[in-house]
Design brief:
14 strands; eight-stranded mixed sheet; 2 domains; about 350 residues; Fructose-1,6-Bisphosphatase, Chain A, domain 1; six-stranded mixed sheet; single chain; D-Maltodextrin-Binding Protein, domain 2; alpha+beta
Length: about 350
């Protein structure tokens, strides 16, 4: 899987990022998301693969493109056996977020990117559209920090693992009312807090890279993005844990007022999740033998530059992580649109 489609997967996230970046700063998050979805879907359908979306833009009736269960790739055609190899006919699961951080794009803020994760069939946890309590940390802390511990305890453990004082640690938390007590505890423990409005996939995987000045992600975000983060962290050897949040009192959003705790538990049972309080680690959320993660910056971020347009083309920076080859590649690409671009800016 890694050898046959990894290069094309980079182009999938690149095309989604370029399409969305054209809407950067225009205040239209829905269109920024829509064009990214369309570009990602169009490019995936040109790849010799048989893919199935397990995490996408929603259910079929709510999302006409890249919906959960949608099949993508040339080898999904009825006559695929005539021109696809046996390897290409093997089913693969795909988790996508064509525009992670739609608000960031609309407002022209840093940290948005196009992301996806791929594994063999059954290799990615089909997360329900719930929230998830998350804990991400560097590889040195893997298996030492634990989401069941308090923030204060985990910061002490993290400081020991990284040989830093707690005061030197930076914890990323989404700026939400539900995190008021968490933020206060982190500050009381002595660590520094970096608040983000959206885009916790980038924050999670940044924990695994030295030099990002991000040492931990804590707090509640979307569950599907948790699976995508776990896929990257599993390949990087970083620490990631997630717990599904089914109690509306934990989330405290206007939409959660429509939920009931009992109703959510029943919905999870219907999906085969009998233990709603289970703590999942990266290997359980991305359990496949081979896992690929790819991302491309839409707006500038901690790990990647955003899309930069010039007369006649665009320049992108992407990241692809493979558990199979145990590689992390940063890919800098110039996309030539016109036959004779005025300038190729290599700086």
């Amino acid at each position: 899987m890694d050898n046959t489609i990894s290069l094309e997967i980079i182009e999938v996230v690149e095309q989604a990022a370029i399409a969305s970046a054209r809407l950067m700063g225009k205040g239209d998050k829905n269109t920024a998301d829509q064009v990214a979805v369309e570009a990602m879907r169009d490019r995936m359908n040109k790849i010799h693969m048989r893919g199935r979306i397990v995490i996408g833009e929603g259910e079929r009736d709510e999302a006409p493109m890249l919906y959960i269960g949608e099949e993508v790739g040339i080898c999904t055609r009825p006559d695929a056996a005539q021109f696809c190899t046996l390897e290409e006919l093997q089913e693969i699961d795909i988790a996508v977020d064509p525009c992670e951080g739609t608000n960031l794009v609309a407002k022209g803020q840093n940290g948005s990117m196009a992301v996806l994760a791929i594994s063999e069939k059954g290799g990615l946890f089909a997360a329900p559209d719930f929230y998830m309590d998350k804990l991400a940390a560097p590889a040195a802390a893997a298996g030492h920090v634990d989401i069941r511990k308090s923030a204060t305890e985990n910061l002490k453990i993290l400081s020991e693992c990284l040989e830093r004082t707690v005061e030197e640690l930076v914890v990323v938390v989404m700026d939400r009312p539900r995190h008021k007590d968490l933020i206060a505890e982190i500050r009381q423990a002595g660590a520094r807090v970096r608040l983000i409005s959206d885009g916790d996939v980038s924050a999670a995987i940044s924990c695994a890279f030295a030099g990002t000045n991000i040492h931990c992600l804590m707090g509640i975000g979307a569950a599907p993005e948790g699976v995508i983060s776990a896929a990257a962290m599993r390949a990087l050897g970083g620490h990631f844990q997630g717990r599904l949040v089914y109690d509306p009192n934990e989330v405290r959003t206007p939409e959660s007022e429509k939920w009931t705790r009992e109703g959510n538990v029943e919905r999870l049972k219907e999906m085969g999740i009998t233990d709603p309080d289970r703590i999942y680690n990266a290997h359980e959320l991305a359990s496949g033998e081979n896992v690929l993660f790819a991302a491309c910056g839409i707006t500038p971020g901690t790990l990647m530059e955003g899309v930069r347009f010039f007369h006649g083309g665009a320049r992108t920076q992407s990241l692809i992580i493979s558990s199979q080859s145990r590689t992390v590649r940063f890919v800098d690409t110039i996309h030539i649109v016109n036959e004779k671009p005025k300038v190729l800016n290599l700086r």
